[in-house]
Amino acid sequence: MQPADTLHSAQERAKFREMKEGTAQDWAIIGSEYRAFAKGLPDRVLDHLRLLDGDFGGFPICRLEHSLQTATRAHRDGRDEPYVVTALLHDIGDTLGSYNHPEVAAAILKPFVSEELHWICQNHGAFQGYYYFHFLGMDQNAREAFRDHPHFEACREFCEKYDQAAFDPEYESEPLEFFEPMVRRVMAKPLASAYAKAMEDEAAA
């Protein structure tokens, strides 16, 4: 078996040194690689989620367990798969987005969920703050800035019923393996993505 670096170097690559030199043949190569790489997105997301295992940050349970517990509560409450996957991934940005983790998670989810679910994920930090901001000298009612938004109540409900409630060490969450098929189904095909549409059109041509 060839080493991975040898296999990588043997792959056909675009010839341009600057994008403005690119040709249709170059972009056909890149498009083919893109489609193959995109299929592995659920695996990469799940691998990154596993990085939260054992990361407590002072909380009663680790960040992975919080994610599992949030998703489990949503699932047992009858929420559909996109909602449950949003609940599972809502804090996946904790590792790389220490100052803006909701936006990181929302960016990952955006191509695959409704505008409402994307908004909930992107803004849950301000809504979650209702339960603790005042202990840190912050504005407990920061969420009120969104009061007139059509998804205000949906985000408030997400935090009240699932997110803020998911720190119970005695709660029996479903394991990550339970949610893996849901992640794969939700991420099987983007609902909206300029890149994906362009690559699909190019492949069909």
Summarize the structure.
This protein has 205 residues and is an all-alpha fold.
Provide structural commentary:
The chain is mainly α and 205 residues long. The protein has one domain (41-186): Orthogonal Bundle (Hypothetical protein af1432), CATH 1.10.3210.10. It contains ten helices and no strands. It has helices at 4-10, 24-38, 41-50, 63-76, 81-89, 101-109, 115-128, 152-163, 176-186, 194-204. The longest helix has 15 residues, at 24-38. It is globular.
> What portion of residues is helical?
40-55%
As residue ranges, the low-confidence spans are: 4-9
Tally of distinct domains: 1
Distance between the termini: 35 Å
Order of helices and strands: HHHHHHHHHH
Strand content: under 5%
Give the averaged pLDDT, no decimals.
91
CATH superfamily: Hypothetical protein af1432
The tally of helices reads: 10
CATH 2nd-level architecture? Orthogonal Bundle
Radius of gyration: 20 Å
Q: Please state the structural category.
A: mainly alpha
CATH class: Mainly Alpha
CATH topology: Hypothetical protein af1432
Number of strands: 0
Q: What's the main sheet like?
A: none
Q: What does the overall shape look like?
A: globular
